[in-house]
Amino acid sequence: GKRDVDSLTALVEALAALGVVGVMVPSGEPTKATVQELAGLLSEGDVIVDGGNSKYTDDQIHDVMCREKGIGYVDAGVSGGVWGLENGYALMVGGTAEDVAKVQPIFDALRPPTPKDESGQEMPGVGFVHAGPVGAGHFSKMVHNGIEYAMMQAYGEGYELLAAVDLIEDVPGVVASWTQGTVIRSWLLDLLVRALQEDPELERIKGYAEDSGEGRWTVEQGIENAVPMPTIAASLFARFVSRQDDSPTMKAVAALRQQFGGHAVHAVRAQEAEKPA
């Protein structure tokens, strides 16, 4: 049954004979500190599962830390968002076969129900994969998130073009029509339809998009492995642009056009140029 504890020590003391501890805290130092503390508390043969969004290279460091104490380590990329509680979570895991097997009952409880094909036959493996050794789970999730960036950017650009022309009288309706039978239907598109139902012109939302880091890591890996990723890179850079009220790059471009060709520029009003002391 469910039992609340107020420390990692109390958590470990409450574990059954075979200890499997899931960690889902912010990536970086918070995860490292948690794994390090748990590795000092658990017993040989126990397993730590990092279900957060750690960088795959951090997993490899955490694994060495755990192995020194006889503790297993599994990294689990988890997708499904707030809807996962109802629909199940897609899981991409990395680790030894032995460690993954110890955690498999938990993964089976979290993963989506096994889907069936058109003939009614179950499609095993959908929604779960043991992707490889430690780091492979989070690497897979990193690539997943990079693809997600590009998909969202494409939907956003399509939405903006629809909204920019007078010809289209029902923008939310057009987007909703894409959700059935089209080659671009997806759960992300369903969520865009939901957002437009709540706010048809997205007037309540500022066009400002943060990035969680995994899009950057994906592009970095593309560079390191000489894999062209122009679409994912562009979607990441678009988020950077969204956070600029007045682009220094375009200021320089405007200044250059004025310098070499005498082209007109939009001057900053005096009150906008004034900065507080």
Automatic annotation (TrEMBL):
A biological process term (GO) from this entry: D-gluconate metabolic process
Family matches, as InterPro entries: 6-PGluconate_DH-like_C_sf, 6PGD_dom2, 6PGDH_C, 6PGDH_NADP-bd, 6PGdom_BS, NAD(P)-bd_dom_sf, Pgluconate_DH
KW Hydrolase (keyword) present: no
Domain 6-phosphogluconate dehydrogenase C-terminal: 137-264
Keywords: Gluconate utilization, Oxidoreductase
Enzyme Commission identifier(s): 1.1.1.44
PROSITE patterns the UniProt entry points to: 6PGD
Protein origin, superkingdom: Bacteria
GO MF assignments: NADP binding; phosphogluconate dehydrogenase (decarboxylating) activity
Keyword Oxidoreductase: yes
Group of enzyme by EC: oxidoreductase
Protein family: Belongs to the 6-phosphogluconate dehydrogenase family.
Protein name (database record): 6-phosphogluconate dehydrogenase, decarboxylating
Lineage: Bacteria, Bacillati, Actinomycetota, Actinomycetes, Propionibacteriales
